Structure formats: structure tokens, C-alpha cells
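dumping this here before i forget
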Amino acid sequence: MDYDTWRHRTIEVEPSLRIAYIDCPSKSKRVERGVILLIHGFPQTSYQFRHVIDPFARAGYRVLAPDYRGAGASSKPTSGFTKSIMARDFVRLLNALEIHEPVHVVGHDIGGMIAFAMAAKHPSRVASVNWGECPLPGTSVYEEDRTTHAVQQFHFIFHSVPDLALALVNGRERIYLSHFFQKIAYNTAAIKDEDLDHYVRCYEQPGAMRCAFEVYRAFEQDAKECQEWISSYGKLSLPALCLTGAESRHLVDAGKMFSEVHQQGTYRIIAVPDSAHYIAEENPESFVHESLRFIEEVSV
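structure:
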């Protein structure tokens, strides 16, 4: 990893809201081929893409990896955690960086929900969308995860409980975050002690866990917005890819979920081997390979 070429920056996208981001220029001698926007999930930050930023840059792309509002080095606001608002943050980030051409959006977990919202609400800014490893609010898969799979997805409800959830996790962030990495990763060795240390430091920051829980508390509003959008404007027609871990429980329902929000023939589902939930960390080589293959196919 060539950290020396990564520009760590912070920019104000609205009054009192700063978004921190990594900006890595293309490392190819050819003309820049476009921009890839990487959106992380929970309990992570832009750090989750540490293994894939350079390979994307070497393939000729400028890579942006922001911390979404409330996470990492970004501001910790008291509101604005619907995925449509979080997607708008990134449109404003692109505007501030004077990036006006459509970008390739790659979102994982919560970042997948944001990526979908960005593709739905701002299609002129999105060249392709690659999202997965999340039950999208507004789909039947999301409802099943709150009921049939409620034990596995307990945090969907737990995070939505005001005050109590935060009180129980406060001071126990390492125990809580470790649960997710141990339980829903296949290649658990991919998350080393120093990686866990990084995530714990991020979520121990004042306001960080509160914001993380607000992201989940907004799911029901996200579901309403998604259903209303599909009802009014129809399913998305942008080229779409779902990367899901071959060992992930999300794999079995990925096709059904995508069929509810994407037009038939516009998407594909790829199971990434030797990984479960945290694909970019568990199998970064395949994550990059499949992402680039998709981007290059839709860019012809």
C-alpha cells in the first residue's frame, strides 16, 4: 500500500458538516479512466478499502474513499442519517472537488444503501453502481431480516432503541465491534488486531457510536422513501453489480432483492470466493477484479 500518494482531506459540504476523505490519483501512465467512489459500512470507515485503493488507482482510476457523516474523521451531526441525505453529502463532495462527470459508485453494507440512494436520486452523477452485503430498506429481504433473521440481524432493532443501546455499548466498543468481525466474516484473519484497534478508536470518539445507531434508526424512513421512489419512478436502469461473499448469508437473497429495485437485464450477482461479509478485506484481489471487470464492461 502506497500511502504516500493518498491525500487525506476534509471538506465542508454544508454548514458545520465536514466530510473526511481519501483522494488517490490514477497511478497509470494512461489517461485517467474515471472516478471510483468507495462507500464503507458499519462498523468500519474508509479504512476498510485500504487494500483496494491502490489496485484501482493502478488500473487508471482516481479513487475517492470518504467517511460518511458520523463516521471516522467526518463530523458527528445530530441528524441527517437517511440514506438519501447521506448520498447527497457525496454529491456535494463531488461538486466541491469539481468532479462533474458520472462516477462509478461502490458501496458495501450501509455504504451499499447509500450507493443505491445515490443511483436512484442522482442518476446523472452515477456511471455504474456496485452495491451489496446489505438488506436494502424497502425490500422484502429487509423485512425478513427484521423478522425471520432477527437473531443474526439483532442490531437492526437494538441500534434503534433510544438511549439504552448507547448506554450498554459505551466503554465496551471493542467487545461490541469484535462480535461483528468474528461472527460474519469467513476469513477472520483478514481483520488483524491493528485493524480492530483502528476501528475501535474511531467508534470510541465522542458521538461516533451515537451516529452509528442513528444510521440504523433511519431505516424505516429509508424503507418508506425507497418504496415511494420505486412506485413513482420505477426500478433503476443504471448498470448494477452485486458483490456478495460466497460464504455470506446474504448471497441466497441477493437476486430477489435486486429484482425488486433494478430492471431485469441491468444487473448481475457475483459470489466472491473465500469471503463472507467483509469482501474488500477478506478477499481484496477478487473484489478489485470483479469490480474492474464490471466497470470496464459498462464503460465500453
